[in-house]
Each structure stands twice: as structure tokens, then as C-alpha cells.
């Protein structure tokens, strides 16, 4: 009988309940915040790479042949990529493909060294290689 009384008293005690709840919920909350930061950085970098790709494709449109288009796209990439905080030129690879009436510019960016991918062990992250392309029509509208 006496053990039941002690058990009821123990179960009715409320001191420390908030600390116990935080010990359970706190780590999940921190992982969710890290995921939010990681995916926010991924979406930002993907958008930035797409914008640089779009501008490089627009610049390449002015070229007369594939060599000149590649040079114009490379110059646009070199000029613009420094405007974005986390993007570095040496991690971007540019490819210009020429079709009969279209030119496609593709940029592949290796983002593995950025702080956003340092959380990869805690949060499932997408591939650290961001690949984007843009196609523009060449004249004759």
C-alpha cells in the first residue's frame, strides 16, 4: 500500500516537466532549423546559378558563331558570378551548345564546400552539384 502512495506522488509531481519536454523536442527543433537553413541556401544558390545562366545565354545570343558565343557566355559568367556572395568562378563549369536556330548555355556549379552542405550528415540534402541551363532563340523572330 505504501508503494502505491509513493508512486501516485511521483506521477503527480510536475516539477521538471518542461525540462523533460524540451530535452525531447529541442533536438528535433534544432535539426528542423538546420534543415531550413540548408534548403534555403540550396534554393538561393540554385536560383543564383539559374540567373547567371540566363544572363550568359542572353549574352551568347549576340555571337556570330559557336566560338564567339562561348566567349561571350564566358565573359558574362566571369562578370556576373562575383555579384553573388557564395558563388565562386572556379567552381562553375560552362557549356555552350549550338543548334540550328537556338543556343543552349549550361552551367554546372559544385557547391559541396559551402556552409549549406555542411549539414548533410544531419539533414538529407540534395546533390551538391547544381546544374542549370537556358536556351535562347537566335534571330528570325
Features:
single chain; alpha+beta; three-stranded antiparallel sheet; 18% strand; Pilus assembly protein TadE; transmembrane helix
Describe this structure in words.
Helices cover 50% and strands 18% of the residues. The protein has 141 residues and is of the alpha+beta class. It has one domain. Strands 1-2-3 form a 3-stranded antiparallel β-sheet, with helices on one face. α2 packs antiparallel against α3. The mean pLDDT is 89. This is Pilus assembly protein TadE. InterPro entries: TadE-like_dom.
Furnish the topology, listing elements before pairings.
Layout: H1 2-12, H2 17-60, H3 66-80, E1 92-98, E2 102-110, E3 129-137
Antiparallel strand pairs: 1-2, 2-3
Helix pairs in contact: 2-3
Transmembrane segments: 20-45
Organism: Caulobacter mirabilis
Protein name: Pilus assembly protein TadE
Summarize this structure briefly.
With 141 residues, the protein is α+β, with helices and mostly antiparallel strands. It has three helices and three strands, in the order H-H-H-E-E-E.
Amino acid at each position: 500500500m505504501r508503494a502505491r502512495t509513493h508512486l501516485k506522488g511521483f506521477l503527480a509531481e510536475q516539477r521538471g516537466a518542461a525540462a523533460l519536454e524540451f530535452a525531447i523536442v529541442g533536438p528535433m527543433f534544432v535539426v528542423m532549423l538546420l534543415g531550413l537553413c540548408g534548403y534555403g541556401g540550396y534554393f538561393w544558390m540554385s536560383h543564383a546559378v539559374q540567373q547567371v545562366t540566363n544572363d550568359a545565354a542572353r549574352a551568347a545570343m549576340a555571337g556570330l558563331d559557336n566560338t564567339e558565343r562561348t566567349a561571350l557566355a564566358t565573359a558574362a559568367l566571369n562578370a556576373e558570378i562575383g555579384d553573388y556572395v557564395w558563388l565562386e568562378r572556379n567552381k562553375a563549369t560552362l557549356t555552350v551548345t549550338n543548334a540550328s536556330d537556338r543556343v543552349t548555355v549550361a552551367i554546372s556549379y559544385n557547391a559541396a564546400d559551402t556552409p549549406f552542405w555542411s549539414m548533410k550528415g544531419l539533414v538529407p540534402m540534395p546533390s551538391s552539384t547544381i546544374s542549370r541551363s537556358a536556351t535562347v532563340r537566335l534571330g528570325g523572330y
